[in-house]
Specification:
It contains 4 helices and 9 strands; from the N terminus they run E-H-E-E-H-E-E-H-E-H-E-E-E. The chain is α+β, with helices and mostly antiparallel strands. It has a single domain, classed as Cyclic Phosphodiesterase, Chain: A. The chain has a 5-stranded antiparallel beta sheet, covered by helices on one side. The protein has a 4-stranded antiparallel beta sheet with strand order 3-1-8-9, with helices on one face. The protein is globular and about 50 Å long. The two termini are 30 Å apart.
Length: 174
């Protein structure tokens, strides 16, 4: 079983992100749109049981804070687009929470550098990259905000239709 720790977005932000997804869908692209809107704090990979994770992160304390959408971007770069995402404004409380989780789980899979974002789509093919990048560049992200008062341990099951996520445990703020 694969596991990760994440923050869910609000219903308002989820609805907004679904609208953003429609802006870059066309017959000239093959995309796998995200169905779950979350900010991954730590990917843990394959584990037999979540119990050791639950025990380690249960003691993490944080104050409720607010996150704000900022921009649209891609990984790895605009010349070779594989993932489309919405980034979040710099937030010290988020960085501290992510570092606390990473430190508690230091023996698990190492993540790449943390870059706060919410994945919108995985790109399979783009027939006209110039037009696609121009369409992305034209998208302006509203600075919607949402509260963070918990983080969640998820199980991820890979299926033919894409990953299926199940909440295992929620961990609340102080």
């Amino acid at each position: 079983m694969r596991f990760f720790i994440a923050i869910d977005v609000s219903g308002e932000v989820e609805d907004y992100l679904k609208g953003i997804q429609r802006l870059f869908v066309s017959d000239k692209t093959q995309l796998k749109l995200t169905q779950s809107y979350h900010l991954t704090l730590k990917f843990l990979g394959e584990l037999n049981s979540p119990e050791q994770i639950i025990k380690k992160v249960s003691g993490i304390r944080f104050n409720e804070f607010e996150l704000e959408l900022e921009n649209i971007g891609v990984f790895p770069n605009r010349d070779y687009v594989k993932v489309i995402w919405v980034g979040l404004k710099q937030n010290d409380s988020l960085i501290k929470l992510q570092k606390d989780i990473t430190q508690k789980l230091s023996e698990f899979k190492k993540d790449k550098k943390f870059y706060p974002h919410i994945t919108l789509a995985r790109v399979k093919n783009i027939l006209n990259k110039t037009d696609f990048v121009a369409a992305l560049n034209a998208i302006r992200i509203r600075n919607l905000k949402f509260n963070v008062n918990k983080f969640i341990l998820y199980r991820s099951t890979l299926t033919q239709a894409g990953p299926v996520y199940a909440k295992i445990r929620e961990f609340g703020s102080c």
